[in-house]
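quick one, 102 residues, struct below
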Amino acid sequence: MALKNASKKQALAVKLTTNESASATLTAALDKATAHKLKLGQKVGTLKAALRPGTTTLKVKLSSKAAKAFKKLKPVKLTVTAVVADAAGNQTTKTLKVTLKK
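---
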C-alpha cells in the first residue's frame, strides 16, 4: 500500500497491489485529540472496492465536514487503514500514517 498523493480535491489517492482478485475496505481516520479539536468523528473517509490482480489506485473521498475543517489546520495527520480479503476469506490489514499539507 502506498499513498500516491494527498490532493486538495478532498480525496486521498491510495495505490494497492494484489496478486489475485480481492475486496478492499479503506478507512481514513484522525487521532482522538485532532478529531476532538475539529469537532469531528475519528473516521473521516471510507471506501469499499473490488480489486483485480495488479496495481489499482483508489480514491478515498473525505467527508465534506472533514474537508472544510482541514482548511483550518495546516498539517493534518491521518491514519489510512486498508483491509484486503481474497475469495477464500484470508484477510490482510495494512496501516499507513499520512500528513496532509496545504
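Residues 2-100 form a domain with the Immunoglobulin-like fold (CATH 2.60.40.2550).
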